[in-house]
Amino acid sequence: MNFASPLLSSVRSRRGLAWLLVPLMLVTFFAAPAKADNPLVQHVYTADPAPLVHNGRVYMYTGRDEDGSTYFTMNEWRVFSSADMVNWTDHGVPMNLGTFSWADANAWAGHVIERNGQFYWYVPVRQRSNGQMVIGVGVSSSPTGPFRDALGRPLLGNAEIDPHAFIDDNGQAYLYWGNPNLWYVRLNADMISYSGGLTQIPLTTAGFGTRTGNSSRPTLYEEGPWVYKRNGVYYNVFAAECCSEFIGYSTAPGPTGPWTYRGTVMPRQGSSFTNHPGVIDFAGNSYFFYHNGALPGGGGYTRSVAVERFSYNADGSIPQMNMTTAGPPQVGTLNPYVTQEAETIDWANGIETEASSEGGMNVGFIENGDWIRVKGVAFGTGASSFTARVASGTSGGNIELRLDSATGPLVGTCAVTGTGGWQNWTNTTCNVSGATGTRDLYLRFTGGSGYLLNINNWRFATGATSGNLVTNGNMESGTTGWTVFGSGTLSSNTSVVRSGSRSLLHTGRTGSWNGPSQDMTSKLTSGRTYTTTLWVRSESGTPSVRPTLALTANGTTNYVQLTPAATANANGWTQLTGTATVSWSGTLSNARLYVETASGTDSFYLDDVSFQ
Q: Where is this site: Important for catalytic activity, responsible for pKa modulation of the active site Glu and correct orientation of both the proton donor and substrate (predicted)?
């Protein structure tokens, strides 16, 4: 759904890239707390939110309404994540109808739950052999997938829709589902089988409220059950009384009832005739997820996910809340001095996302005037430079760095030239001035006509020194700037490259501390924090590579481990990135940056090294 260009389907066919590979000014300024902007995602339609909290992030699993739909035309599921409830990262399509060879339609509302390090995604789909709606299970060891079919067949045959899983305090898991009825089954510990029969929950008016004017469906319950436990009370939040639906809820003393209807969570609002609840606690707050038709072209079949923060009443009841465009306040701020995915977005105009050859997703289909907003970026005392990972199959364009609005103060401009392909990635770096305090950041793209560039990730650097301190960090000038620390031989390699046409290969290492090195003595500032990024690939095995600084001052050498963490993997290459503060006493007489391994003497390739 690209409001500045053709619809996704035609755009994809014109570019034909990695989609085919996927199965699926220095005044310190302190802003008021940033808030989210509803809907949470603007470049695709999303529906039926299923939020999950895992390791300090919220993962939001959704369905995907196809552009221009006049029915529930849904072929894939999506996942987005956030650490601040404001800026959401698009992780793409970890599961689609093709995941289930026996299904042919209706990738509808599902739910993800984690158990024993595995993530289980329960989804309703249409079975090809008989046309019935059934429930399948996808499984993955990562919250972002990819997911595979856990069973090779449905978990539940001839089932109703909207499955939701819940694990009680005693370890017993349940799966709930249903429209027009409400069912549950007790799941076994493996989460892909069940014990006992399928049980239908009585839909009494005491339990689920009274519907008027429909004798065949006397209660308010419609679909989309969301069951959870809080302070000893079991809650069932559900879509009520179509159409259009509102969100109601019931409570019970146990996971299977008896249920008592408690009232309205969200009244009928928005331009979608359906709604779908999701409730979580995160960072000391409670959040209610839902969907509406608020985006351009939105409606009952082209929906978008939104979220509100709320507080339970003293008696544990859920307050009634309304849809807003502001959404909840930001939790914390965003750190611009570590690598951020370009598809981490608060709001966007014109862009789309696609699968990247470097792994994960990138922002693409960028045209003149498109932009991305990232909220609550904590620049602190000021940024000095900006580096982005970019590609262009044309002549490129520019990335304008603006604050507060798309036409706000310009703090830097990075030029992007053609790279020879939409997935031929390289780094571009530019100076930055005036980015201080906590501000909203806009990446505004400018250039000629047509598609300009793709962007995979970005980061800022601090301090008075700007730009990459490493000479020939992209290895395109052979071994220029690089020497051997210890033993072995450095050579320029053209057959195994991460980007461009060359990499660096270190062979004949006799100690783990041997590695490619550069002199940094005249480049370092004591007390400054530096960010290092590199890509490494082993000739054989998996070396535990780490960049290290050897600092000699007053005759004493100290070793600073820059301890980066792996952030991306692609085509056998691993990206490492991290930050470290360097300091010394007295006069610095020798400082070397070198790349070593924690153990072993494997030969390894090195490419795209940045230290700034």
A: 162
Would you say 411 and 396 are in contact if contact means Cβ atoms under 8 Å apart? no
574 DSSP assignment: E
d(CA 496, CA 3): 40
Q: Are residues 501 and 352 in the same domain?
A: no
Q: How many residues does the chain have?
A: 612
Whether the CB-CB separation of 457 and 387 falls below 8 Å is answered with no
pLDDT digits (tens, 9 = 90+) for 40-98: 999 999 999 999 999 899 999 999 999 988 899 999 999 999 999 999 999 999 999 99
pLDDT, residue 542, reads 63
**Nearest C-alpha neighbor of 162 from the set 136, 104, 105, 123:** 123
Pairing of strands 148-149, 133-140: antiparallel
Q: Which two tokens stand for residue 195?
A: 């014990």
Residues serving a catalytic function are 48, 222
Distance CA(496)–CA(505), nearest Å, equals 9
| Residue 425 pLDDT greater than 60, yes or no | yes
Structural domain span for residue 526: 483-611
* pLDDT at residue 411 tops 50: yes
Q: Quick one: 433 and 542 in the same domain?
A: no
For residue 214, give the CATH number of its domain. Answer: 2.115.10.20
Bridge partners (DSSP) listed for residue 493: 503
Q: Within a domain: residue 51?
A: yes
**CB of 167 within 8 A of CB of 114?**
no
Amino acid symbol at 589:
S
Q: Which helix (H) or strand (E) holds 354?
A: strand 352-355
Q: Phi then psi for 559, rounded to 5 degrees?
A: -115, 125
Q: How many CB atoms lie within 10 A of CB 511?
A: 14
For residue 474, being part of any structural domain is answered with no
